[in-house]
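Board notes, transcribed. Complex of a protein with zinc ion.
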Amino acid sequence: MVSLVTTTPVRWGRLKLLLPLQRALLRPIVTALAYAEMSLAPRSTVLGFSVFCTDVGMNCGDLMTKTREALDLICRFDPRRFNRMTRDVRGIAVTTRGASFYDTSLRLIYLDRAVIGEKPDYIASTIVHEAVHARLYRSGVRSYVRIPHRHEEVCTAEEIEFAGKLPQSEALVEELKRALASRWRGCAAMGRSPAPPRP
Ligand SMILES: [Zn+2]
């Protein structure tokens, strides 16, 4: 998922015209608050990435260890992708918003706190997913708001390709394939907004 300032959905067509203005006005405030949160959070550099312990309820040492294990998997089994990530992504933080996402202003991947409790391969594939959002955005593909399901399909497909390179990853690959088949394509076919990426 890509975060471009989340706003409450508006049902009335006329008010929808105000949403771009609303986003433009809110964006600097949201970014300033995120910067403040980052500056106050414990941080560490892990394999070249700044990792911010932005969840006060989290064991920061555990976060750094898990992040290192996940980044190490990407570095060892997909070094080209890892090198791209170092250019596209500034760092990693934690969110309690219920889904992982990439922040385009801060160039940060926010991992949902539930993801940190998963195994390293799952954390790594989630980082890969969000890093693809980063790659798309920084390549000038900024149509997420208009066609989110297409972006999610691309990112999940890249996750599958990455997961396939990991040893003993059959279960993870199958889980991702099911997500790709049932979630994004299903949502697109029904013309509904996709659910947030998996926590
Ligand atoms: Zn996504």
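Residues 5-10, 186-199 have pLDDT under 50 and may be disordered. Residues 1, 129, 133, 152, 155, 197 surround zinc ion (CB under 6 Å).
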